[in-house]
Amino acid sequence: MLPTRKEAETLLKEAENCNPGPWGNHSRVAAHCAEKIAAACPMLNSEKAYILGLLHDIGRKFGVRHLGHVADGYTYMMSLGFDEVARVCLTHSFNNKTTDEYIGKFDTSEEEFNIIQKELSRITFDEYDRLIQLCDSLSGAEGVLNIEERMEDVKRRYGSYPQEKWNRNLAIKKYFEEQIKKDIYMVVEKDTFTVQ
Fold first, then answer.
1. Burial of 11 (0-12, 13-18, 19+ CB in 10 A)
2. What Cα–Cα distance (Å) separates residue 46 from each residue in 5, 34, 38, 51?
3. At what angle do helices 23-40 and 46-55 cross, to 10 degrees?
4. What is the DSSP letter of 99?
5. Helical segments of the chain, H only
6. pTM score, two decimals?
7. The predicted structure's pLDDT at residue 96
8. 8: pLDDT strictly greater than 90
9. CB neighbour list of residue 112: distance below 8 Å, 6 or more residues apart
10. Nearest-10 Cα torsion for 53, 56, 62, 68
11. Which residues make beta-bridge pairs with 139?
């Protein structure tokens, strides 16, 4: 189940009031990218893609956490009955389906970590999981970024970036470009889109 677009926008605004920061605009950029790419893919629904992109980091509502935001987002969205959003709260950080490649602190309780591991093992990634993983890797707080520049920025901030994760992000980008037969950066309006 999904919230409506308006409900999703309200949820994000409420979350930003609890924990202000650049993550809110990052989420808006991800939503923009997801909507644009989905609109160019016959197998995807652009409205659903927008909502999933907008709420993929909703766990940040509960404070400054690293891996914890994944557990918080998943649990929060499940509590509201939005299982499709809960899923991308979980899958957006693990494009190779392993917590071993997570970049950031493992700041979860044992129970939270077990939920992440258990639920991740049950999921077979679909087009929306891959789409939000891609859009997360394209989105800065100011606008759309070059995917390699974004990964380099993460590497600088955290000290490392697993090569397998790097390669997977590039493979997902290539996959969607092959689906839509267009350059991703043109589709997501990289050089012109700014957060309103």
1. buried
2. 11, 7, 5, 9
3. 160
4. G
5. 5-18, 23-40, 46-55, 68-79, 83-91, 110-122, 127-138, 147-158, 163-180, 184-187
6. 0.96
7. 93
8. yes
9. 68, 71, 75
10. -150
11. 144
pLDDT above 90 for 10: yes
Count CB-CB contacts under 10 A for residue 57: 26
> CA Rg, the chain, in Å?
15
pLDDT digits (tens, 9 = 90+) for 125-184: 999 999 999 999 999 999 999 999 999 988 998 888 999 999 999 999 999 999 999 999
Which residue has 């909502």 as its token pair?
A: 51
Largest CA distance in the chain: 44
Q: For residues 46 and 42, what is the distance between their CA atoms, to the nearest angstrom? A: 10
Q: Identify the CA nearest to 37 among candidates 54, 25, 49.
A: 49
pLDDT tens-digit readout, 52-83: 999 999 999 999 999 999 999 999 999 999 99
Tokens 């950080």 locate to 93
Q: For 79-106, how does the pLDDT look when each residue is reduced to its tens digit (9 = 90+)? A: 999 999 999 999 999 999 999 999 989 9
Q: Which of 117, 84, 71 is nearest to 98 (CA)?
A: 117
Place of tokens 């394209």: 138
